Amino acid sequence: MNKLTLFLFLSLGLHLACAQTPRAKFEPPKGKCLFFIGQDLGATGGLDEYTNGYCDFFAIPAGVTVYTNLSPGDKSFGYFNKGLDGLKTKANWGAGDCWAQKYLEDTTYAHSALAIGLSMVNHERKVAQGKHDELIRELGNWIKATKRPVFLRIGYEFDGWAWNHYKKKYYLKAWKRIHSIFAQMQVTNVALVWQSKGTGSSQKVLEAWYPGDDLVDWCAYSYFGNPDTEMLTFARKHHKPVFIAEASPVLQADHLYFDTDLKKEAVAKRTWNDWFVPFIRTLYEHQDVIKAFSYINTNWLVQPMWITNPTFQKVDSRIQVSQYISKKWTEEMTKPRYLKSTPALWRLLEGE
């Protein structure tokens, strides 16, 4: 076999291998992107008691973002965790009401997937040691009962050490334990999502904290200020799709945060040009790997958790409060690339 023949043979083999690479769990078809909205009931709306959120003004997205925890006994802004708060019962940790079951019981979201942020702050060691197995099994049973795709962000923003302070040894063991229990329970409608805070972690750090290709379905990161090229590089290397699991307009320069209160017309126009345009460009330039995103449609500046936080204390990211942004956002989101809530969504994500 001469060199040219060998080159053509190897090139053909590589092409066939790439063409035959299976899609990840709930990964949409090529060229499509799942659109989620979050991250509290008031932000999403479309419900009897919550009527001024995103879904009261725009088409229902492919999914909604909710939160829960494996941290019983911990306290946040006067709320004491019992464990798995915000799933079957309403919880409020100082950042709006959270109640996943509410979505399941309302026809507005009958065809929407769920993205669940699962915190285990202060409890990763207990999870790793099996002390919270009962909660994990309860979570697994709840996920199975949803009968819809669920994206589970275990220990989201694992590298946010300033606020999550996870210990790597126990974080990785906790992830493996959750994966193992779900496998034993045959929880088949869940994709496990590994999420970074979005900036500052090198490839070396990401590799050290990575649970492993066989334990992770999606990579993810938070997008507030700038796109995270490190996670995109990492995901391509590991052949994983990327979920921008948290996105909201934050503008910063020289360690100062600018006003991004979209109720103000001049601010809204500047924010569209300086944040939304680069964000949408990121979705297009990296569409080979970015297959889902969740926009946080929240009035951050009035929520107790954020009113003294320098990053979010000047942010009202609700799209519906700005006619200017609403028009431009609608023009973008109506493009067929962005998947929304439809009766055919489950079959599409399951590869049928």
Secondary-structure topology with pairs:
Layout lengths: L2 H17 L13 E6 L2 H4 L18 E7 L5 E2 L2 E2 L19 H5 L8 E7 L4 H5 L4 H14 L3 E5 L13 H18 L4 E7 L6 H7 L8 E6 L5 H9 L4 E6 L4 E2 L2 E2 L2 E2 L3 H21 L4 E7 L18 E2 L6 H11 L4 E2 L5 H5 L3
Parallel strand pairs: 1-2, 1-13, 1-15, 2-5, 5-6, 6-7, 7-8, 8-9, 9-13, 12-14
Antiparallel strand pairs: 3-4, 10-11
Helix pairs in contact: 5-6
Count of helical regions: 11
Write the CATH architecture name: Alpha-Beta Barrel
How would you spell out the order of helices and strands? HEHEEEHEHHEHEHEHEEEEHEEHEH
Structural category is alpha/beta
**Rg from Cα:** 20 Å
Quick one: CATH superfamily? Glycosidases
Counted up, domains total 1
Q: What is the CATH level 1 assignment?
A: Alpha Beta
Report the CATH topology name: TIM Barrel
Mean pLDDT, to the nearest integer, reads 93
The strand count comes to 15
Unreliable spans are 3-19
Percentage of residues in strands = 15-25%
- Could you give a short account of the major beta sheet? 8 strands, parallel, barrel
Strand order of the largest sheet: 1-2-5-6-7-8-9-13
How far apart the termini lie comes to 41 Å
Shape: globular
Helix content range of the residues, please?
Answer: 25-40%
